[in-house]
Amino acid sequence: MQLLNKPGIEGIESRAKAIAKAGGIEQFIAAHDVQKLQVCLSEALVLGLLRQGVSKYLAIFGHGSTHLGEILRVYTEAGVTKVFNFRNEVEMAHAGTALSWVYQEVCAVVTSIGPGALQAMSGSLAAASNGVGIYHIYGDETTYGEGYNMQQIPKQDQNLYGQLTAIMGKSYVLHTPEAIRHALRLGSQTVFNPVKAGPFYLLMPINTQPEVINSFNLHAMPQRPGASKQAAGEQQFIIDAVKAICESKKVVIKAGGGCRSFFNELRSFAKLAGAAVVVSPGSTGVLANDDPLNMHVGGSKGSISGNYAMQNAELLIVIGSRAVCQSDCSGVGYPQVKKVININGDFADVGHYNNTIGLCGDIGIILGQLIAAFPKSDDYLSNKKAWLADCLHKKNEWRSFLSRTQDVKVIADAVWGRAALTQPAAIKAVCDFAKQHHAIKFFDAGDVQANGFQTIEDDVPGETYTESGASYMGFATCAVISNGLADKPKYGIAFTGDGSFMMNPQALISAVQHHAKGMIVIFDNRRMAAISSLQHAQYGKDFRTNDSVAVDYVKMATSVSGVKAFAVGDSLNSLQGALKSAYAYDGLSVLHVPVYAGTDERGGLGAYGSWNVGNWCESVQDTYLSRNI
After folding, report:
1. Rg of the Cα atoms in the chain
2. Pair (370, 469) in one structural domain
3. Using one digit for the tens of pLDDT, what is the confidence trace for 365-401?
4. Total structural domains in the chain?
5. For residues 40-67, b (16+ Cβ closer than 10 Å) or e, as one string?
């Protein structure tokens, strides 16, 4: 018992073993006096995170984190924590984001001071943009000011890394070890925020990590927070919203990522409201693909049906959406809308549009309130029949267009010097394969992502994860690693372009190291096709978005022991055969798929909306300024 209250390696080992023997941190607390422990700051952090259910660490240790690394070594050898080492901080941040996002296993990313911390912070943009909770723990310069610390920002100011992370999100510099309780309380409020979770940055000065807290109260460390759900509260707003819906002939719902957890309520509500539903890239599956109310994606890279519904609706119901520029066409996506109903957990997002009935609170409860408030008779739906019929016609038009485009399997490609598969056909084939085998789809940024969210046919949320919040190239490749980190892994397929893949090819090594089983499909068009097509659409020519360097991705992949790679030819049969072989492999497999890029319209799925970018800015901005909502 005495060792449990002592600093030094013997005390650390004793506590770690006692926690393992007790069966967990809460059982350990219940059985021991833990109110006046002598522990160093690094161990206090590990103990505090255990109380929040965080036991997995993704780490690249450096001179700024060796002490924390030693504590994690002891706790991992005792079986209390798990540490997964990586080779690149951006890759590691993406893998941690996927672990939290897909599997709901909140973890901590650990880096050193300096460039490693900056890279991890860069990668954390994906978590911040998609509302994913995760801890980021960085080394930091020493607190005595004895002179420049290697890898610190070379400027004579205080708390510079803390200032950087505070711009990105919520952060805390552990300048005083005894502040660990407050730091972890702020962290829990950020990482487990039920409305807008995000990364929390803990800065660990090199010299404070080993400092001993002489009266550490483990019992006082904050646990994972829990709060009761809150309804909208204002019943008159519910009544006003239902009245507006019943009286409007053309209603559209914009279902954002906040709908994913409430898709059953959304489906019931949409039917009662007689509303066409437009989804975002991150909310596919909230309505089944074949649901006649599902108009598919809308926005600057939307669909015929999604954009038709946006452009012609009179009443807009926003649910769980941030109104991102590409998703709402830079504010001009709803030219006929006169009134808005906004259902959101975030007060600022509720007030994004003018003339809004704002329903701020738990989305599921608010939808339940609205459902209960509709008239018992559905006579009010008669004035919406023409609208829904028009929308269904456009949905069928979109699906017919998809089918025609996907039927074009190959097009002669100047770069490849032969026929190459089109992205619509190739992506469709891989999506169908994923659906058949219940595999998760991860989409990378760029042309593959855009054609992907126009293609996918999800029936429930969670079948696809597309990092459209930050459009971070390389995310999908790294996300596959999470299969090897999760307690209950699911087979994952990364859809990535050649450019995105090359952002984080070291993910191949990490995936093998951590026994991930999944597939990376590289759709190689030897260019940044999303930007090339944008340049052609705006200026008639592309510029510096391609290169002349051929890369043998199969050789590159197979140079990593444990990776199985397949070269796909110029036929769908070749791709389908490779998919079967890759899926049968017990580990990580890579498919290299040469695809067409060029000005032939059959090579992509097109764009159907406005966007405030390039030489479109003037017209979009003029339209935006003339809008009243």
Report:
1. 26
2. no
3. 999 999 999 999 999 999 999 999 999 999 999 999 9
4. 3
5. bbbbbbbbbbbbbebbbbbbbbbebbeb
